[in-house]
Amino acid sequence: MSCFKHVLCVLTELQNPDEVVGHAIHICQQHNAKLTVMLALEPLPPNANMVMESFAYIDTYESIQAAAEQRLDSKAQEWREKMPVDTVFRYGHSFIEIAKVTQDIGADLVVKLAKTDLIDRLFGHEDMRLLRKCPAPVWLLHRNDSQRYQQIVAAVDVNYHYPDDEVATRKQLNQAVVIKAAQVAVEENATLNIVHVIDEQVDMVVYDGIVDMGAHAFGGDQEQTEAERQAAIQELIELIKGANPDDVIENLRIQTHVIRGNARRDMPELISQLDCDLLVMGTVARIGIPGFFMGNTAESVLNQVNCSVLALKPAGFSSPLIT
Questions:
Q1: Which CATH number among 3.40.50.720, 3.40.640.10, 3.40.50.300, 3.40.50.12370 corresponds to the domain 149-323?
Q2: What does the DSSP 8-state code read for residue 43?
Q3: Residue 216: its pLDDT value, please?
């Protein structure tokens, strides 16, 4: 079953672009998807026009743009030897331009090399902003990743002790996570690990001045809680089976992991222990809070992993492109 139909591969520079484009081509070939390669360059520093004469500033801007477009066209000729490729060039704040292009061309997946910072955390500030704003799933690649995955982790939150509208969103997002992860696992002949952490720390969130602790989410019998979560995961596995032919499911290796602890600490640790190549997870929680686009737990986990990440949002979720 095809998982993606139109992939937008994003470059933020043209030094050694073949790694990320090669990965995007691999995904497209696996899913028979269309490929568009976008070059997104940040604008000149805000004070550039203050230290340069106006004509020199304009000439520099235009020469950079012309050189970048020419280089992109040249590389595209090489990529087209493997498959058809469209190209797009944008000059501006990258996360905004990426989100706009994704929307304009109807891409259902964005593939991008994750930025690294001085303390070697996987996700830079711009990547986090992209995850908040992009209308499509975002696949952030870890540098030097293999194009073949062996261990895929689907991180799910099957704690459903929340208001009905939030429970519906959580269930839909969990379903999207496991189905996407299973589809990639089938394509890559990889093991699918479905992971859930029973978070024993109280998660207090303020809703318009009212503290919501997630009623009944942290109390009750431990065995009952674990059985409840295992049952919810089994429902997700049955969903995977229902969405794929029997011969496909027979070859899909599924392992489940339900542990107790703190999700922000123990989820990254388990992902490391599993030697995860790709983490598939949802990035929106507590959607009832205006302007709160990414859950603290998701953002904390993303900042600690050193593997590729496929980040999903609930169906129909959108946010303003400009902040």
A1: 3.40.50.12370
A2: P
A3: 47
